[in-house]
């Protein structure tokens, strides 16, 4: 079975600092994979490399069988950055219609994705008036246009209240059930419980790769935060 993502010996240097020192990992199709670790650990850099917007020093990143950044992938990947990526002076409908035209997505997608992120009542509202959580969901809506095969979501639930976080995770699980591969980064360890598979990342290195149960069994711990701390202690100094 072909992996959705295949990262081999990926090295990234930014501002003269080694961020990813030869990272290797894979992501299987149709799963919700959590990329978990503290801020500054390399999660965003890895995601940028996956979507093809990060210059790499060496190594390779293959996405859906193609080199990361290949033009053919443009319509097959949805990407949400930590900062909202919508135009503040336009309504949500105008934003979605614009991005749908860029992606050559069906016009009907505008209403569909607005409903999926629970923003349908705000379709004709200017983004400038949205709360932080609403802007984050608006950005997610743009990534859902065109029904991408892979969703790369950088901290999509940060700053959201528990009810909205839960509703988004329900959406992620529904997308995965339809065959979409979902890669979600977070520094909140309890979100591990919602993932099919986990990649624990610290200082640009993968500490663990497996299901929650596998990682807990390997570390003899009862929760992912404790497992993470145990793995950090095992690292060579």
Question: Could you characterize what this model shows?
Answer:
There is one protein chain. The protein has 237 residues and is an alpha/beta fold. The protein has a domain at 84-147. The protein is 32% helix and 26% strand. It contains 7 helices and 10 strands. The strands form 2 sheets. A 6-stranded mixed sheet has the order 6-7-8-3-9-10, sandwiched between helices. A 4-stranded antiparallel sheet has the order 2-1-4-5, with helices on one face. Helix 2 (92-103) crosses helix 3 (109-116) and helix 6 (212-219) packs across helix 7 (224-234). The protein is globular and about 55 Å long. The N and C termini lie far apart (37 Å).
In short:
By secondary structure, this protein is an alpha/beta fold.
- What is the mean predicted local confidence, pLDDT? 92
Rg from C-alpha positions?
18 Å
| Coarse shape | globular
- Label the structural class: alpha/beta
Q: What summary fits the major beta sheet?
A: 6 strands, mixed
- Rounded to the nearest angstrom, the distance between the terminal CA atoms is 37 Å
What ranges have pLDDT less than 50 throughout 5 or more consecutive residues?
none
- Spatial arrangement of strands, main beta sheet: 6-7-8-3-9-10
Strand portion, in percent? 25-35%
Number of strands: 10
H and E string = EEEHEEEHHHEHEEEHH
Give helix % range.
25-40%
Structure annotation, total helices: 7
